[in-house]
Amino acid sequence: MEHSQILKMIHTQKLGRLFELCPAIRLFFSGIRLERLDTEETLEEALQGIADEYLEDFGLTRGEISDSLVRLMEKDRDEKSGEQVAVRELTVLPGLDKSGNAEQSGFTVRRGEIVAVVGPTGSGKSRLLGDIECLAQSDTPTERSILINGEIPDDACRFSLGGRLISQLSQNMNFVIDLSIRDFLTMHAQSRMVERVDDRIEEVFLCANRLSGEPFQMDSGVTQLSGGQSRALMIADAAILSNSPIVLIDEIENAGIDREQAVRLLAEREKIVFLSTHDPLLALSADRRVVIRNGGVYRVLETSRRERSNLAVIEREDRKLMELRRSIRLGGRLDFDMEAFFHGVQGSA
């Protein structure tokens, strides 16, 4: 079904019919507390009695509601058609750094691999993630190009609103639709045509709680979640429910979650994972790290055998730091022999 046909359907079909065709539309209206709209009316008729001020409280206009419903139906269409590229590898072709000089190298990443993007603050790590997210074709400031399976992705692949190849988890995860976690996950599962919806959302919920520093309940509102809880939920969602084979994560170490387990979870699901990080534990957990300098790729380093060995030492020390963080969160004191605690002589948190 083409965009123009979907747009016409949104404005001519009764809401009840739209709910049947795309269950995510019903949940969309539940999220803005309009679940009791008359299903025997069209969208325009049903919204006639709703004040503009009410919609503005949710950051919406009537036109934006229509656009949102079109996007939901297009996503549903693409999910049902199964027309998504089977991604085996992603290649970043060199572009330019901030000074206009050619980058040192490009690189290729395969399914199940993790790439850490490292560099000073402001060096251009997020710009690289942005180029990957939009599948750049020399049309961004860096002039990089992205290949999928060694080929230039077509426009349908680049600009599809549904069946997206790439999921991005930013540093700030803010929900604007006031749904319970259960309804939110149900909406995602149904829109992705997932089988055994209840089982899958339970899996996501339990996984998110394992990642989160602070547990939460299934019936909690998504707008009530902390930043760390939100990111834990979306990482679990991306790993278990999302069909996107490529996941981009920006500075997961700031999220207050079990970052190492989160990245491992995504890799085990055969995702290609890019993570921007300053954390040596995450950097050495990756298969390789891309070093960004002055906006360009400076070098690509495979994680060496010695670095893998050193990772065990970093993990051991990190576990001790996690003990200290947990003690602080629970109101404990750190007035013991810290030297002995870290060197394993005696004492504990």
TrEMBL record:
Residues 87-320 form the ABC transporter domain. GO terms for molecular function: ATP binding; ATP hydrolysis activity. It comes from the Bacteria. PROSITE patterns: ABC_TRANSPORTER_1 (PS00211), ABC_TRANSPORTER_2 (PS50893). Keywords: ATP-binding, Nucleotide-binding, Transport. InterPro entries: AAA+_ATPase, ABC_transporter-like_ATP-bd, ABC_transporter-like_CS, P-loop_NTPase. Signal peptide: none annotated. Belongs to the ABC transporter superfamily. This is ABC transporter. It comes from Caproicibacter fermentans.
